Amino acid sequence: MLKHSVPIDKRRARSTASKQKIAEAAEQLVLRKGRSGLTTSALVEATDVSERTIFNHFKKIDDALLFRIAQHLEPIIASPPFPEGLATSQIPAAITYHFHAAVDSPQVQEHLKKFIVLAAALSYEEFEGMTQEIMLTLGTICDHFCSSIDHTYPQLTVQQSLANGLYTVNLLMGVLMAFVAFAQESEHNPAFLSAEAKDLEMARIVPYIHRNIDQVASGTPVY
C-alpha cells in the first residue's frame, strides 16, 4: 500500500456516506419542491459534492430517489430477524408472521410513513412514471429476504424457494396497497394522500396493512 493512500475500508466508508448524503438530499429536495426541484445543480448545491461524484453513485438522479425509497421499505424485511430451526413446512407461515411483526414495529412504521410522505410529494404522473423502477426495487428487496431464508434453510427445493419469493412479493405489495385502501375508505386523496401524508397517524393505517397481509395469507404456499 502506498504511504499516503487511504485504506480500502475508509474509502468504502466515505463512499457509502457520500451516497447516503446524496440520497437524503434528493429526498429533501422532492419534499420541499416536488420532483421538479430534484435537479443535478440542486443536488450539487445541497450536498457540496461534484456532479461527477453524484453520477459515480447513481446513473441518473431519479436513482437517488429510488435508493431512498428502498431504504424506507427494506426495514419491513429486515426486522425482526427471520427465525432459525423451523420445520420446512412452517416457513411460509413464519414469513406471514414476520410481516405482521414488522408492521407493528415503531421503527418500521416510521419508515413507512416517510415512504408515504415522499410518494405524496410526487404527482400521480411522476409516481406512475417511476412505477416500473419501483417494482424492480421491490423485487430486489424481496430477493434479498428470500435469499437469506434459502441460506438459513438450504434444504428448500427450487420450487419451494420460488413459491416463497412470489409469496413475499405479494405480501409486500399488500402492505403498499393498504395505503390506497386507507385513502379510499377514509375519503382522502387516494394518490398517496397528497399533502395530508405528513400528518398521517400510522396507528390509523396499520389495521389496513394487517388486513391486507391476512388477505394475501389466504394463498400461503403449502409444501
Characterization of the model:
With 223 residues, this protein is mainly α. The chain has two domains: 8-66, Arc Repressor Mutant, subunit A (Orthogonal Bundle), CATH 1.10.10; 74-217, no CATH class. It is built from eleven helices and no strands. The protein has helices spanning 8-33, 40-47, 51-57, 61-73, 75-78, 91-103, 106-120, 124-129, 131-152, 158-185, 202-217. Helix 10 packs across helix 11.
Low-confidence stretches: none
Number of β-strand runs: 0
Shape: globular
Which band does the percent of strand residues land in?
under 5%
Q: How far is the N terminus from the C terminus? A: 53 Å
Summing up helix and strand content along with how strands pair, one would put the structural category as mainly alpha
Tell me the series of helices and strands, N- to C-terminal.
HHHHHHHHHHH
Helix content: over 70%
Question: Which value, in Å, is the CA radius of gyration?
Answer: 19 Å
DSSP helix count?
11
Tell me the number of structural domains: 2
Overall average residue pLDDT: 87
Largest sheet: none
Which key features would you list for this structure?
223 residues, mainly alpha, Arc Repressor Mutant, subunit A, 2 domains, 11 helices, 0% strand, globular
Give a brief rundown of this model.
With about 220 residues, this protein is an all-alpha fold.
